[in-house]
Design brief:
mainly alpha, Ribonucleotide Reductase, subunit A, 15 helices
């Protein structure tokens, strides 16, 4: 890891212009070379194609080039960093932030297949690849919690149970809603309104906002401190995977609104529900040990939300704009 910027160094900067060399490095790096990729560049890469979204066949071709083997990671240095170099506050904060992602990967792995039923054949190919990604990410976190944190269990679910006490309602609420929406799609797989509600929660909020924000918080910390090289490598590769997922999901929502402009109401109603649910949190996450404040994380969340919607041409309703201003006043002028 060459450059060690403070975690929030680029939070208030505008969009970054990626060079052709940076794009090539992100797209074509093998797992070993991913360690040298800047996480801020990867998050910017997610937005690179949102204005002209790739089709699902192109996304599948990228998946074939970018697949990585989770068992090629060596967590031995991470274990040393975790137990000998990180403070207890840093460890607790790190687990609290990453545990939502740990559980989210597993839930999406089992909830996403229902979305395939009503999809086009090209979408099904892309979604099938995404499900394989989610399974790999689940195993990545299982290895990290076992080999670095030290959680024990006979199976994947046992380790998930061990990390659950750290999961906050910031994550539980949207994923609880997703379980309900998945049942709705399962019962009516060709109901496009139900699919748009599911897609708004999962592709836009859970992947486009929550996932990318969590990635930036933990990975910018790891890069800043020079700690957890295998975690940084695997989770940065995961972020590259998420770029395909977010682009595919936003392509779906954009197409749905273009076919039927009234679908914007489903997007807005779903966002209202998510924002109200996200305001309830009884398990406090302390971001300061990782170099972040709670207000900065809120800013990060809504920066991610606004960029996704702006890039694909979906506006927020006036009441949603006001709701976001109330949640994060700093955004009122942006």
């Amino acid at each position: 890891m060459t450059e060690r910027k403070s975690p929030t160094a680029v939070l208030h900067e505008g969009p970054r212009a990626l060079t052709d060399e940076q794009v090539t490095q992100i797209e074509e790096s093998d797992l070993q070379a991913v360690l040298d990729v800047d996480i801020d560049d990867v998050i910017e890469y997610v937005h690179k194609d949102l204005k002209s979204l790739p089709d699902f066949t192109t996304l599948y071709r990228k998946y074939l080039k970018q697949r990585w083997n989770v068992y090629d990671l060596d967590f031995s240095q991470d274990k040393i960093d975790w137990h000998e170099k990180m403070t207890e506050d840093e460890r607790q904060s790190f687990i609290a932030v990453s545990s939502g992602f740990h559980h989210g990967e597993r839930q999406v792995e089992i909830e996403l297949p229902v979305f395939m039923i009503g999809a086009t054949e090209e979408e099904k190919v892309h979604i099938a690849a995404q499900i394989e990604d989610e399974a790999r990410h689940t195993v990545f976190f299982d290895r990290f919690y076992r080999e670095v944190v030290g959680f024990q269990g006979d199976d994947i679910m046992s380790v998930l149970d061990a990390s659950f006490p750290w999961v906050a309602e910031t994550f539980v609420g949207p994923f609880g809603l997703l379980a309900y929406q998945a049942d709705e799609v399962r019962q009516n797989p060709y109901d496009e309104r139900a699919r748009v509600r599911y897609g708004t929660n999962y592709f836009l909020w859970i992947e486009g906002v929550l996932a990318l924000s969590v990635m930036k918080v933990t990975l910018s910390y790891a890069r800043w401190r020079g700690f957890l090289p295998a975690y940084y490598t695997g989770f940065t590769a995961t972020c590259r995977d998420e770029s395909r997922h977010v682009q595919g999901g936003m392509r779906y929502l954009q197409d749905a609104v273009r076919k039927d402009p009234t679908m914007i109401r489903e997007i807005h109603d779903t966002l209202r529900t998510i924002l109200f649910v996200s305001g309830v949190n009884s398990r406090q996450i302390y971001f300061e040990p990782l170099g972040w404040t709670e207000d900065e994380v809120r800013i990060l969340f809504f920066q991610q939300l606004r960029r996704k919607l702006n890039d694909v041409g979906i506006d927020l309703s006036p009441d949603l704009e006001e709701l976001i201003k109330q949640v994060q006043p700093v955004l009122a002028g942006g």
